[in-house]
Design goal:
- Helix content is about 40%, strand content about 30%.
- With about 220 residues, it is α/β, with parallel strands linked by helices.
- Strands 1, 2, 5, 6 and 8 form a 5-stranded mixed sheet that branches.
- A hairpin with a 4-residue loop joins strand 5 (about 80-90) and strand 6.
Length: about 220
Amino acid sequence: MKSMFRIVFILLLMAFPAQAQVTCPAKPAGDVNVIWGSDKIEYDFTKSQSQMDRMDIDTKSPYDRHTKTHVGGLMKGGISVESKIQVASLTYPRSRQTCQWIDNMDVTIRIDPKIYIARDHKQGTCRHKAILDHEMKHVFVDREIVKKYIPVIQSELRTAIRKVGIVGPKAERDQRQYQKKISDYMDKRLKLVTEKMYDERGKRQQGIDTLAEYERVAGLCG
């Protein structure tokens, strides 16, 4: 799980008489666009049972530590979040003051699922299909979580943009300082909501790997 944050600045210039009082103009709140996509599922059926047993698993085993188990299948992948914010700036050269506001913010969410099944369970067999069906449940959960959180992210960031409003007038020499404050604030708001998404994702994924589910899959093929 990772996140990236990019900033784009829009610069406007406006000349006023030296004695004129500078007032930041009213501007409509910038919008938030959230786009999501899922990479095509990758499959790896080449690893041996012993190799699968050594792979890291995100969820906890429902069995006690004294029970010998094998990892027949595994879904690996994450939800990545990238963002780009456009900060518009209106500068008054004579007074050397500037006004800034958020013009637009884009958030891109991607899922990159990969399913592993031990080569001991040959393709076309009942066991292979049972394991594959189970691992697909993990993929579906990631997709459901992302779809659920798109409007949540939009709402949170739109509220944050309205709270930022128009910053200024500020001294032109402090422009970059306030640009950073704006971007840091928006980055913080995005991280807060994505952390909630990751937390719920972890709980939902753990809810799939239960003892009852494992025993159900194990009993499908005799």
